[in-house]
Amino acid sequence: MRKIFLLAFAGLIAGFFMTSCSPSKESKHPGFQKTKTGLYYKFYKKSKDTTRPHVAEYAVLEMIYGNPDTVIFDSRNLPKAQRPMKIPVIRSIYKGDIYEGIKMMHVGDSAVFWCNADSVFKKLFRMPKFPKFIDSTKDIYFAIKLLAVKTPQQLQAEESARMIKKENEEAKAREEYLKKHHITVKPTADGLYFIPEKPGKGPHPKVGDRVFVHYTGYLLNGQKFDSSYDRGKPFDFILGKRQVIPGWDEGIAKLRKGGSAKLIIPSSLAYGPGGRGPIPPFATLVFDVKLVNIQPGPKPKK
After folding, report:
1. Is the pLDDT of residue 18 over 60?
2. 16 catalytically annotated
3. 181 in the same domain as 280
């Protein structure tokens, strides 16, 4: 497990383990300084930047914490959209906590802090039970590299710009798909592309009806991510009750029993900016669907 930690901040960690593992009777953490509140700290890189994080701002950072033998958390393993970490800077929860350490740093600094494990898990993380793999009498290290300090307004502006960029990229990819497959139908007001293939018979399903649908779902690049055929039975849900993505509620309502179609569903009618499972953020989805059966819902009360 140490190898993972060493790769994160090579120079910082090399010095950290050399000093923290050296025997000494004079200090709990040899080579580290101690604040009046009991926080042990050591800076392995000091930048010339004068910017420091303050309460109500956000610290943009890389962080690893654990003990010398176990990495409990590594921010590099977070989903791409969540990297680097952005931590709201608040007043210390208890004396000598990691927030005190973060507020000691300047942008560009790299440092290691030691905090009491019992306080970290009970007071900071508010865990009702202490993890069995951690000794409550020992300390937890936090290795931190401060990358930037942002105001909430700056983060909001950056996120808005990122969203616009992703939406534009999705729209471009969708237009390329439509052009490549010679699809000329116009989208509905909500943005759904409904391409009928087989008309089917009888009435359309109504809100409250249980519908049984066979389907195969693809990303725009042709990658299949799910199919009811693989499970050997159609998928059923109650129409119009938000049990499925909005694009399905709208698209399946356009079919008749036995009918089939292709649905091209923008992320705004699917899984949006978050994605889900194998479906990435801002993904337009393509479904080949067939309405196998309709089970009428309960009749409205008079």
Report:
1. no
2. no
3. yes
The number of folded domains in the chain is 2
**Ranked by mean pLDDT, which of 18-27, 102-111, 130-139 comes out on top?**
102-111
State the catalytic residue, choosing from 64, 144, 245, 279.
245
**Residue 80 located in a structural domain:** yes
The domain containing residue 226 runs over which residues? 173-295
Residue carrying the six token digits 């898990």: 121
Give the pLDDT of residue 145: 97
Predicted TM-score (pTM) above 0.85: no
Per the annotation, the verdict on 287 as an active-site residue is: yes
- The CATH number of residue 122's host domain is 3.10.50.40
Task: Please indicate whether residue 294 is annotated as part of the active site.
Answer: no
User: Residue 288 catalytic?
Assistant: no
Q: Among this protein's residues, is 142 annotated catalytic?
A: no
Residue 70 lies in a domain: yes
**Residue 23: exposure state from Cβ atoms within 10 A (0-12, 13-18, ≥19):** exposed
- CA proximity to 235, closest of 257, 207, 213: 213
223 inside domain: yes
* 22 against 259, higher pLDDT: 259
What is the C-alpha separation between 245 and 265, in angstroms, rounded?
Answer: 9
